[in-house]
Structures are given as structure tokens and as C-alpha cells.
Amino acid sequence: MDETSQSQTASTPQDNSLNMQRPVIISILYLANFVLGFSVFIGVILAYVWRGEERTSEWEKTHFTYLIRTFWIGFVVTLVFFFGMFFTIFATTWAFDGGPTTGAPRGGFFLLMLFGMLLFFAMSAWFAIRSILSLVKAGERRPMPNPKALLF
Fold first, then answer.
1. Using N-to-C axis directions, what is the helix angle for 39-51 and 58-96, rounded to 10°?
2. Do residues 57 and 49 touch, judged by C-beta distance below 8 A?
3. What mean pLDDT is predicted for residues 9-21?
4. Residue 149 belongs to a domain
5. Does the predicted TM-score (pTM) go above 0.85?
6. What's the domain count of the chain?
7. Domain region containing 95
8. Is 118 within the bounds of a domain?
9. pLDDT digits 0-9 by tens, 122-145
């Protein structure tokens, strides 16, 4: 390697610098939440902080907006799921306290629980798909086409 190519290499910024990989870090934290259960909170805090920085590029901002919306939509759906499941369990238990002669629909409880679990798994798949899409596009340094989309 001659002297001019060495000086060009030294002055060229590294493509894999931490600054360029911040959306990747957040996407990985989101996906790690399936195992850890808390890393999504670290990820959303980082997304808010990094989105507000002056040095953040426009393609990164689209990812941060996309990932912040992914967090909040997922958080609200999860809360609705848990409150719905709590209400279903509470209402069914209350109806069964009168005994088997109350005519309470026993099959309705299991049907509601099954529907709730399917909804929860669908929401988990939605969350994972959005995180993976951001991860892939950020790896290529491409912006998210529609960061305010509800689906993908």
C-alpha cells in the first residue's frame, strides 16, 4: 500500500461507526425484549435522546420515529390486552361464584382467553416484524419509507 492510499484510508470515516449504527442498536434492544423483558425501555429512551441530537441524520430520524411509534403502539395494545384479560378473568370468576346453576357461559371464558392470546401473539409478531424491518434498512443506511405507518 503506497502513502497516498494510506492517507486516504486514514481520512475516510469508517462505515461501521457507532454513530451510523444507532438505529441498529435500538432495533436489537427491541428484539432482545422478547428474552429480557425490559430492554425495550432502554431502546425507546435512546431513540428519543438520539432523535433530538443535532448531529442525527435524516435517515436516522425516520428510524427513530418509526421505532418510537412501534414502542408506543405496542405498549398501548399490550396494556389493553392485559386489562382485557384481567377483566375477563375477574368477570368470569365472579359469574362462577354463584355455582353451576347460574347459567354462566363456561365456554365463553375459554373463547375469550383464546382470542386474547391470539391477539397478543399477533401483536408480538407485528412488533418483531417492525423491529426487523428497521434493523435491515438501518444496516443499509436507508430511511424508513413511511415512519408513521401503523402496520409496516
1. 140
2. no
3. 47
4. no
5. no
6. 1
7. 19-139
8. yes
9. 999 999 999 999 999 999 999 999
E strand or H helix that includes residue 16: none
For residue 54, give the amino acid letter.
Answer: E
Q: Report angle CA 84, 90, 91 to the nearest 5 degrees.
A: 85
Supply 102's cell numbers.
347460574
Q: Which three cell numbers stand for residue 32?
A: 432482545
- Is 147 inside any structural domain? no
**CA nearest neighbour of 106 among 92, 118, 116, 117:** 92
Cell 375477563, located at residue: 88
Give the span between the Cα atoms of 126 and 118, in whole angstroms: 12
Identify whether 10 is part of a domain: no
Instruction: Give the residue-averaged pLDDT of 72-85.
Output: 88
* DSSP class of 18: G
Exposure string for 24-39, b = 16+ CB within 10 A, e = fewer? bbbbebbbbbeeeeeb
Place of cell 405507518: 149
**Cα separation, 71 vs 136, whole angstroms:** 18
Report the chain's C-alpha Rg in angstroms.
Answer: 23
Number of neighbours of residue 10 by Cβ within 10 angstroms = 7
Least confident of 16-25, 59-68, 92-101, 106-115: 92-101
C-alpha cell recorded at residue 83: 386489562
